[in-house]
Amino acid sequence: TIWTLHDMWALTGHCAYSYDCTRWQTGCFSCPLLRKPGRWLVEPAPTKLDLTRSVWRTKQRLYQKSQVHIVTPSEWLCGLVRESILKDAASVQCIPNGVDLDIYRPVNRDLARQVLGISRADKVILFVSSKLTAKRKGMHYLLEALGGIRQAEQILLLTIGGGDLPRAQLQNLRHRRIGRLADQRLQALVYAAADVFVLPTLADNQPLVLIESLACGTPIVSFDVGGVPEMVRHMETGYLARCEDPNDLRQGICTLLEDDELRARLSLRCREIAQQEYSLKLQADRYLALYEQAIERHQVQFNA
Predict the structure, then answer these.
(1) Which of 25, 70, 104, 283 lies 20 to 30 A from 274 at CA?
(2) What dihedral do alpha carbons 126, 129, 131, 133 form, nearest 10°?
(3) How much helix, strand and coil, in percent to the nearest 5, is found in the chain?
(4) Is the separation of the CB atoms in 256 and 219 below 8 Å?
């Protein structure tokens, strides 16, 4: 079996992300995230009873009986696997996700804005999440950061995703909700129209939206968590802010918005890294090599 992990769930007794908790390394029990105030953040949805000890032990027994090759899209998650109940898997390796670089590509910003009906004079910040108000994705930190920016009236906040933001939280910000987009070419056009893509995520493995932003040449501001630093390289492809620090997040946003030359330089580097590391062909080639390795290993064991 070749199993690609997209979060920490396989390693824990319940949680997709453990945040500061390390009990999953030796055996989950009395989960702090299943108790208040952790319940507001835990994924999957919290259960009434804490079954983390029995679930973790069940997973451990199953893994010990299995021949499984583990793939993670980020080196961060790969490192956690090697400290977990999956550390004795047949193999553990990192294969980053890729995107279609012919679709997600730089487009002239003025043209993209003309198509979308956005003024060339606006300072455009883009936020993308399947659910705009998902706690883990940190929209509340973005709104707090934007609330302290001078001349906020020049900023237009674009959002792609389900749900809507309460008007009270937007204060004096101009907000344009695009909603869910199924068309990838239209998604790429929105990325191209933005000056900065901001994702103040509190925990993440390898958000695909960050790779899409890189491919479109849009610099990123995000928190320094999980696998994010592998894509958002400080002052190379964007700005890495201290986690849960809205002031540093604001600093990163202002640093990029106020320096056109810096954004242009970061934009070029974003596209270069996307081409070097996040193409679909590279992802496919790496998986093909893993399949061949797994088949060869199985044949050797079968014939032994």
Answers:
(1) 70
(2) -60
(3) 45, 15, 40
(4) yes
CA–CA dist 171, 153 (Å, integer):
11
CB 200 within 8 A of CB 218: no
- Phi and psi torsions of 125, nearest 5°: -115, 130
Contact 201, 182 (CB under 8 A): no
Residue 17, token pair as written in the block: 């992300």
**Residue recorded with tokens 């958000």:** 207
Distance CA(211)–CA(273), nearest Å, equals 9
> What tens digit of pLDDT does each residue of 30-71 get?
998 998 777 888 999 998 899 999 999 999 999 999 999 999
Exposure on the CB side of residue 285, measured as CA atoms within 13 A: 6
The answer to whether 254 and 231 have CB atoms below 8 angstroms apart is no
Query: In terms of DSSP H, where are the helices of the chain?
Result: 52-64, 75-81, 109-116, 139-147, 167-170, 184-193, 208-215, 246-257, 260-277, 280-303
Residue 102: phi, psi to the nearest 5? -80, -25
CB 107 within 8 A of CB 189: yes
Locate 251 and state its tokens. 């600093």
The token pair that represents 90 in the structure block? 């047949």
Tally of residues, the chain: 304
Using one digit for the tens of pLDDT, what is the confidence trace for 189-206?
Answer: 999 999 999 999 999 999
Q: 218, 192, 209: which is closest to 107 by C-alpha?
A: 192
| CB contact at 8 A, 192 and 217 | yes
* Cα 9 to Cα 250: distance, rounded to the nearest angstrom: 32
